[in-house]
Design a protein that fits this description.
The chain is α+β, with helices and mostly antiparallel strands. It has one domain: Orthogonal Bundle (Cytochrome p450). The chain is built from 19 helices and twelve strands. The chain has a five-stranded mixed sheet with strand order 1-2-8-5-3, covered by helices on one side. Strands 4-12-9 form a three-stranded antiparallel sheet. The chain has a two-stranded antiparallel sheet with strand order 6-7. A hairpin with a 2-residue loop joins strand 6 and strand 7. Helix 13 packs across helix 15 and helix 15 crosses helix 17. The termini are far apart. The relative contact order is 0.17. Bound molecules: protoporphyrin IX containing FE. The site of protoporphyrin IX containing FE has 24 residues, from helix 15 and helix 19.
Length: 417
C-alpha cells in the first residue's frame, strides 16, 4: 500500500486551476476536457483542500456500494475544522436529512418509506404528470408563436415542482417560493460555497424549516390521503415522542422537495439541449419512440445532474492502493466517471442506443428513491415534445450556473420553425 498522498505542489496547482475553470460558465458548458485532465492525474487524486478525488467509474461504483464508506453525517460535520463551511445552519440541516444519515439511523428512516415510487404509485401519478405537461407545452407553444422562449423557465423548472407539489398536496401558490428557496439552499451542497452563498443558503434553510414545520402541523390537524399524512401515521406508530415523530416527517417532506427539483429540472432541460444538438438521433427517436427511456438513460450518463458525491472513510483504509485515514473525505467525481474510457467505448460520444449503466442516482444503501419518478417525468415530456413540437430548435447558447457538484441550466432559448 502506498503512503497517504500529499499533493505535489505542481499537481496541487493543476487541480486548483482545473476546479476554478470548471466552475466558470465556460467550464460548465463543457466540463469534459477538465474531467479528462483530472483522470490523467490518477484514479485517486489528492484534493488540495483536503481528502481525495476518485476519478474512475470503477472506484466511484465501489465506494458507493461499500459499507466501509459513510456519508458525512451531522457527527462528522461537527468535528470539522472549517466551522463556517460545515457548521452553517444549512449544512447542519442537510446533516439531518436521509442521504446524510448512516446506519442504523438511515435504516430506521428509510425502511418505513418502502418503495414510494413503485410501478403502482407511478401508474396513479402518470395521468396528472401528462396533464401538467400538456398545460406547460400549451404555454410554451403560445410563447413560441411570438418568438424565442426559455425552455428552462417555462417547462424544465416547472414540471418537477408541480409534480412533487401535487404529490405532497402543497398549494400551487407556494411553488415559486419553494423553487427559489431550493436554488439558494443548494449552495451549501456545493464544493466551495462563498460566505455570501452560505448566508443565502442559511436564510433559505430557515424559511424552509418554517414552511415545512407548519405544513406538518397542518396535516396533523387535518390528515388526508397524502404522503405527509401517511408519514405522520407511520411515525406516530414508531415513535412515542410526538416531537421526534414530527421532526422525522418534517425532514422527509423537506428533503423530497430539495431532492426532486434541481436534479429533475436539469435532466429535462439537458435532455432537450443534447437531443437538439444531435438532430439525426432526435429524428430516429421520433420514428422509434420505444427508445425514449434509453435516450433518457444516455442523457443521465452523458451529463448527470450531480457530478460529485461525498463519502468519508469509516476506518483507516485504502483506495486503489492509496491510504485514506478514518474520517477523511473522498469526492466521487461522477461526471468524470461517466466519461471513463475504461468503462465506456467512446465515452465522449452522445449515443442514445448505448444501453450503459451509470451512477447518476448513486448506488448502495442511499440509491435514489425518486429515480423512477424523475424518469417518468422525462419520458412523458419527451414523448409529448416529439409529437407536439417537431421543429423545436435551440436559438441561443444555453446558460449554466457556475457550479461544480450540482449542474443547473438556467436558460435554454428555443424557437419553433
Ligand atoms: C434526475 C433526478 C434525480 C437525480 C439525478 C437524483 C440523484 C440522487 C442521488 C445521486 C442520490 C444519492 C446521494 C448519495 O448517495 O449521497 C439520491 C438520493 C435520494 N433521492 Fe434522488 N435524484 C433525483 C430525483 C429525485 C426525486 C424526484 C426524488 C423524490 C421525489 C428523490 C429522492 C431522493 C431521496 C429520498 C434520496 C435519499 C435516499 C437515501 O439516502 O436513502 N430524488 N438522489
Amino acid at each position: 500500500m502506498e503512503p497517504a498522498l500529499a499533493a505535489a505542489p505542481g499537481d496541487r496547482r493543476t487541480v486548483v486551476s482545473l476546479f476554478s475553470r470548471l466552475r466558470t460558465a465556460d467550464g460548465q458548458s463543457n466540463p469534459l476536457p477538465f474531467y479528462a485532465k483530472l483522470r490523467t492525474m490518477g484514479e485517486v487524486v489528492p484534493a488540495p483542500w483536503g481528502g481525495h478525488l476518485a476519478t474512475s467509474y470503477r472506484l466511484c461504483h465501489q465506494v458507493l456500494r461499500s459499507r466501509s464508506w459513510r456519508v458525512p453525517d451531522s457527527g462528522w460535520r461537527t468535528c470539522q475544522d472549517d466551522a463556517a463551511r460545515w457548521s452553517a445552519a444549512a449544512s447542519r440541516q442537510m446533516g439531518d436529512t436521509l442521504p446524510m444519515l448512516n446506519p442504523p439511523h438511515h435504516t430506521r428512516m428509510r425502511r418505513p418509506l418502502g418503495n414510494i415510487f413503485d410501478r403502482k404509485s407511478l401508474e396513479i401519478i402518470k395521468p396528472s404528470v401528462e396533464k401538467v405537461i400538456e398545460r406547460l407545452l400549451d404555454r410554451l407553444a403560445e410563447e413560441l408563436r411570438e418568438g424565442p422562449a426559455d425552455f428552462c423557465a417555462l417547462v424544465g423548472e416547472e414540471l418537477p415542482v408541480i409534480t412533487i407539489g401535487e404529490w405532497l398536496g402543497i398549494p400551487s401558490a407556494d411553488y415559486p417560493l419553494l423553487r427559489s428557496l431550493t436554488h439558494d439552499q443548494v449552495y451549501t451542497q456545493e464544493l466551495f460555497p462563498t460566505p455570501s452563498h452560505l448566508a443565502l443558503s442559511d436564510a433559505a434553510t430557515h424559511r424552509l424549516r418554517q414552511y415545512f414545520t407548519e405544513l406538518v402541523q397542518e396535516r396533523r390537524k387535518a390528515p388526508g390521503g397524502d404522503p405527509i399524512s401517511s408519514w405522520i401515521r407511520t411515525w406516530d406508530a414508531l415513535e412515542s415522542d410526538r416531537h421526534a415523530a414530527d421532526e422525522a416527517v418534517y425532514s422527509l417532506a423537506l428533503f423530497m422537495v430539495l431532492a426532486a427539483l434541481e436534479t429533475t429540472a436539469h435532466v429535462l432541460s439537458s435532455m432537450v439541449w443534447l437531443l437538439m444538438k444531435h438532430p439525426r438521433q432526435l429524428e430516429w427517436l421520433r420514428i422509434h419512440p420505444e427508445h425514449i427511456p434509453g435516450a433518457i438513460d444516455e442523457v443521465l450518463r452523458y451529463d448527470a445532474p450531480i457530478h460529485m458525491i461525498s463519502r468519508v472513510a469509516a476506518e483507516d483504509t485504502e483506495l486503489a492502493g492509496v491510504r485514506v485515514r478514518k474520517n477523511e473525505m473522498v469526492q466521487l467525481m461522477i461526471g468524470a466517471a461517466h466519461h471513463d474510457p475504461n468503462q465506456y467505448a467512446d465515452p465522449g460520444v452522445f449515443d442514445i442506443r448505448r444501453k450503459a449503466t451509470y451512477l447518476s442516482f448513486g448506488g448502495g444503501i442511499h440509491y435514489c428513491l425518486g429515480n423512477t419518478l424523475a424518469r417518468l417525468e422525462a419520458t412523458c415530456l419527451l414523448t409529448s415534445l416529439l409529437k407536439r413540437l417537431p421543429s423545436l430548435r435551440i436559438s441561443a447558447a444555453p446558460v449554466w450556473a457556475p457550479r461544480v457538484a450540482f449542474r443547473r441550466l438556467t436558460a435554454l432559448q428555443v424557437v419553433h420553425t
